[in-house]
Amino acid sequence: MFGALDSLPWVPLAPASTPIESLDRLRAALGGGPRLMVKRDDVIGFAFGGNKVRKLRFVAAAAMADGADTLITSGGIQSNHARVTAATAARLGLHCILVVNGSPPDRPTANALLDRLLGAELRFVASREERLPAMEAAAAALRRLGRHPYIIPVGASTPLGAVAFVAAVREMLAQIDPPDVIVHASSSGGTQAGLVAGCALAGLSTRVIGVSADEPAQSLASQVREIVSGLPDLLGLGRHCLAAPAIDIDDGFVGEGYGVPTPESRAAIELTARTEAIFLDPTYTAKAMAAMMTYVRRGDFTDSQTLLFWHTGGQVALFA
């Protein structure tokens, strides 16, 4: 069913499974409706958790096999991916360079503070467009010194990173019956690609809704589709196995832009904390939860259906 998944090397950064819990108090606060559940990747016990830990398990193994002595990646100042990459490098005894767009903060907080505590070398650029050239320049300079850098794209959103969520679907199926819908935050596309591919390979009818944190639906769907297209070769499967999967993106909750809270996302943070003692982050999961709450209140799904909210972490950003 999942091809060569078990033959792919991975680094055991944390226990491989996370719990699934019912959101009964939240459901009651929303006036009933479908059964609500949550997959708690926010409680992964490494580097404050989140979906990036799953991805780095596989990507770090590839870096080690390549003989890497330095991990290079990029993101925003409060990047969750940058934080987990820095932590992975520290755990494995590697150097880490983070190319960050924005100005150096006078007083680092949240993820930016953790990056420094983990010993990462931060290099600041003015814009997102400058990140890739800066990473490539850093890698080239290290190679001239005889070093062995390994560049990890933003969000580790590659087929290898997405494999982590193919594995996560299998993990989910060992815990609960297939949900009717999975709702999660989607940005660089790797998490959604893995969830879509995992559900397709398992023969599920589960609808995977990625709630965009920044990109227009058409652009993000294209990214997800491209990552999915690289999975059959990686898993030793025929390309027909993942031909033309449905990519469902909701970009109606972005608001004024990436990292900018909306009234709905603020309300989602408060209601989820006060009903379930679960913390969301303002950039990703709060907007995804705001979407799920809207679906429930609108009656988009029936009382007999199950919605699974995949909590991708990021709650460190609450301390920014």
Can you describe this structure?
- The protein is 40% helix and 16% strand.
- The chain is built from 11 helices and 10 strands.
- The longest helix is centred in the first third of the chain and has 15 residues, at 51-65.
- It is globular and about 60 Å long.
What composes the largest sheet?
A: 6 strands, mixed
* Helicity level: 40-55%
State mean pLDDT (0 to 100 scale).
96
Distance between the termini: 42 Å
Order of helices and strands: EHEHEHEHEHEHEHEHHEHHE
SSE blueprint:
Layout: E1 20-22, H1 24-29, E2 35-40, H2 51-65, E3 70-76, H3 80-92, E4 95-101, H4 110-117, E5 121-125, H5 131-144, E6 149-151, H6 159-173, E7 181-186, H7 190-201, E8 207-212, H8 217-229, H9 231-235, E9 248-250, H10 263-276, H11 285-298, E10 306-311
Parallel strand pairs: 2-10, 3-4, 3-6, 4-5, 7-8, 7-10, 8-9
Antiparallel strand pairs: 1-2
